[in-house]
Design goal:
By secondary structure, the chain is an alpha/beta fold. It has 16 helices and 8 strands.
Length: 478
Amino acid sequence: MGSKVSSKFITTDRSQLLLFPPSVEEWLPEHHLARFVVDIVEKLDLSGITDQYSESGSKAYHPKILLALLFYGYATGTFSSRKIEKATYDSIAFRYIAINTHPDHDTVANFRKRFLEQLKPLFIQILLVAQQMGLLKIGKVSLDGTKVKANASKHHALSWEHACKLEAQLKEEVEELLKSAEAADSCENSEMDIPAEIKRRTDRLKVIEDALDTIKERSNQRYAKEKAEYDKKMEKRAAKEKETGKKTGRPKPKPPNSKPEKKDQVNLTDDESRIMPKKGKGFEQCYNAQSAVDVDSMLVIAAFVSQAPNDKQELLPTIERLEALPDELNTIDALLADAGYFSETNVDECEMRGIEPFIPPNREKHNKSLEERFKEPLPLPEDADYIEKMRHKLRTLSGQEIYGKRKTTVEPVFGIIKHVMGFRQFLLRGHKAVTGEWDLVSIAWNLKRMFILSAEAILKTKCVITGECWTSTVVCYE
């Protein structure tokens, strides 16, 4: 016997014919991230993608839908193409974006893989949209890198030293097996399948030889780069000694090594990833994801992926990407980076390009005394060079205040990407592919951030009129 429905509860009926409103426009609240993503995608020039579709064959899903699904998926922690397909059935927001259609996971995955290179111009377009909305005005920029796990295991990596040992061992075993094969010809009762054992080892040898060739090639590339840097430093050193008439007191640069190092390694799953140290977690197969973040808006304005385990070589590529931004966005006046980016060359590059560097030569000391925190440094000597000037600037109260903004801008971006959005590992393999995926992650973060900034701007304006406190009334649906 069924229970009597009380009048104090909302009347519901699962058998009713219409559960959703007739229009998809009514499915979500007015201020919802999915609506915002769709609106931004509508403003983008997608001709670089749409022009690649053929008029023949079956009809395809429009790139606007697939891009919006990927942007919203990455912004809300749904990265897998299978999960995105499932969400078009289970999630109202994904249904709204897909306009109640259901692109299958192969369609989503193939679209992402095919148009990774087209994400970079879209990344720039979205920054221009942010500027037009009054959300972005670039001045000071924070730079940092974070290790992101590759789609590969460190246990599938081979070092130069270990690969050489394995190669020698396998060659010896093949020789022994060949001798055993000759002996087995005169013996009918051989229990070992010698041809299969030889094939197994020769196949393995081929893999190891390819790995050694890859390591050699990388070593040659590294040597050429390090040799050019070494020659440049030596020329600069010689010119300074000639100018001053005395030898410089700084240590002489160490010449690079042309041979592979013992720990040089290659991964057999993703040979373009590298084993890198991770904070508190030993070593992992990773890529080094770099982001330059606008201090005021916390929007990512430059992003790329490096294969280097440290950040020292990544400052110049960052500056080059910042300078390549459209003129409307290229208004950088200061660059904030931690001690991992410091080198004389990097500071010199910033100075030559008219960007004020805030890059400490050493890591900051924690728990400073009151005197250290609020004491201004002694005046600089007249003959101070640009390195000494920067050191002095970072010791001033104004310099410390500016540099202090670094850890409250770029570091929270990485924290939210990893721990809120949940992006801790690349799904794709290969340097080119993961660079495109990091662009996708950066776009997703920017859209998420723009959504919050635009909602705050609307409520600020509204509350100026009503006199209410806007900080207590911000409501955004993600």
